[in-house]
Amino acid sequence: QYSGVRYVFGGTDPNAGMDCSAFVRMIFGQFSINLPRTARDQAEVGSVVPFDQLQPGDRLYFACRNPYIDHCGIYAGNGYFIHCSSSRNGVGVDRLASNFYGRSLIVARRS
Prior knowledge:
Blueprint: E1 12-13, E2 17-18, H1 20-29, H2 39-42, E3 47-48, E4 59-62, E5 71-77, E6 80-85, E7 90-95, H3 99-104, E8 105-110
Antiparallel strand pairs: 1-2, 3-8, 4-5, 4-8, 5-6, 6-7
């Protein structure tokens, strides 16, 4: 459903483009769960989930290119997560255990 959404840093409109935190915020908003705008602020909301207890729908927060949280996505199950990223130029699915994302994962949260 969201495969046509393209990545735009700071974007919040699925038709014009959005970033990772706007994507996560939009998905959770559809279930009446209000989240802050940025990934760093979102990472402070909800219960911490140990990585070995992830369930589909858990929010994932990464420090990919900085020493602080700068990316987020939603766990999809079976080791995969969905996110809106610049490397994919939009919404896509990646493996959580990949070298890049596996070493960048900081915290998981459940709403």
